[in-house]
Amino acid sequence: MEDHVDLQKSSTSMSNSDGATPRSSSGLHREEVYPQFAREELEPFFDSLEQKVFLGRNGVSLRYIHVNAAERGDRCVVVVVPGRTESFFKYAETIWDLSRAGHEVFAYDHRGQGYSERLLADPQVGYVREFDDYVADLKTFLSMIVAKEKQAQKVFLLAHSMGGAVALKLQQRLQAAAPLPTPLFDGLALSAPMLEISLEHPSFLVEAVVSVRCLMGQGQKYASLPGPFDAATYGADLTSSDERLKWYRSSLSARPEIQLGMPSNQWMKEALRASSGLRRWLSEEGINLPVFLIAPGKDSVVNTERQELLRRHHKGVLLESVSLPFAKHDALIETDDIRAKVIESLLSFLEHFDSPAPPLPHHAEEDPSHDPM
Predict the structure, then answer these.
(1) What is the per-residue pLDDT across 55-80, written as a single tens digit (0 to 9) for each?
(2) Is 307:293 a contact under the CB 8 Å cutoff?
(3) What's the CATH code, domain 31-353?
(4) How far apart (Å, rounded) are the C-alpha atoms in residues 316 and 82?
């Protein structure tokens, strides 16, 4: 994609101790002043957001945030669906940019990670009972929270890695069912979707090993070492941006409640089965929604070749992609040049679906706890 959209500039200015103003952080090029930008703008912005709660499948408490557009009224609704290990905190900069570009943003933390309820006595173990639990939680979030609180009309999911698999799995279910009177979402922005995990050994062999471990009662044990979260090694395979990675590692060290270690045998079994099922579905049926695909070229976390299934089996509706030959797995926290291309291309894609900008009414405070579907 060649189209670009300029972001609204931040109303907050930064100056050095001697009164000089550094290179602006209000656009998309911030790495030169990233520590100052994070300290003076990004962290206060995130800390000012109210974290609310909804109940996912089986009554698990899940945290979410809702950010209205900073300027120009609400254009589209973007729902952030994080990857494994992540909290919506990781997306603070992306939420900042989307909000300042006129979009309304929701984000939530999956069960067992981030600020949401952990599922095991050891909160460091990445665990899920069934991958369908993630899918049910997303459906509940969209139908019980987003649909009721949103101001704009069109809803798009910005889903990264495991979150991409969750979003696609929900779309698979929706395509197989009778159409809803009002769609839960109107399109997908997929960042390195987890259609196949990159592993040292073939997926079928790893699935067989972890399945046997689960049968032996080791489902809640780490599938591999080193196990618990380690800030010193975290993220080297995610981004080439030293400044963003340094800030995020420091932030995770300061927020131990959102740290998460390696996945469990049960999580691996469920994730491998879910991604295999998605590959079959895309090959046999395809997807009938607009899709924006973020495709990093140096991704060592997921097998990017599997993303060709989205291109080859797309059912004739809008599909756009941004190719990033030098990007690692998480392009949304990559270097300025890479990240700017992603954000500008995403905003250009969303322009196809902009809602009229209505006034932002004041809503009375509601009970943040909702019954699961």
Answers:
(1) 999 999 999 999 998 776 668 999 99
(2) yes
(3) 3.40.50.1820
(4) 27
